From TrEMBL:
It holds the Pfam family DUF3085. The lineage of its organism: Bacteria, Pseudomonadati, Pseudomonadota, Alphaproteobacteria, Hyphomicrobiales. This is DUF3085 domain-containing protein.
Length: 132
């Protein structure tokens, strides 16, 4: 399971939308292998060096996406980040796309929630909210 503050998730979504408006749309998370799939507002859940979410709007030359690390899996501060990533995301690098509409509907149904939990299984991405 990976946990992110809802305010940070909203900022990542907003940044992706702003980048898309300024730079011609959304990036394809599948490196073009599935044309047009995932080229809508959303976030990328990335397993790489740690696990993080990032904005998906097209970037200007040399631009950087907004990145927010999972509370449990930041390579600078979590000693066992690699083991945690391998256990809950897998050993290989990868990207999972999550639509902004799905997230925003979930957030709007529970305005008191403060954090988003993302859990991956073999076949699905399960989302849940917690209040701290």
């Amino acid at each position: 399971m990976f946990t992110f503050p809802i305010l940070a998730v909203r900022k990542v979504i907003d940044r992706g939308i702003a980048d898309a408006a300024a730079n011609g749309g959304f990036r394809n998370p599948y490196y073009g292998t599935r044309p047009a799939e995932g080229e809508t507002p959303g976030i990328w859940l990335v397993g790489d060096e740690g696990v993080y979410i990032m904005s998906n709007g097209k970037l200007p030359e040399g631009g950087c996406a907004l990145v927010v690390y999972a509370e449990q899996c930041h390579p600078k501060g979590d000693i066992d980040w690699w083991d945690y990533k391998r256990r809950h995301f897998g050993g290989d690098d990868g990207i999972e796309f999550i639509e902004a509409e799905r997230l925003l509907r979930l957030f709007d149904r529970n305005m008191r929630a403060t954090h988003l939990n993302i859990q991956l299984t073999e076949t699905e991405i399960a989302l849940s909210l917690i209040t701290r």
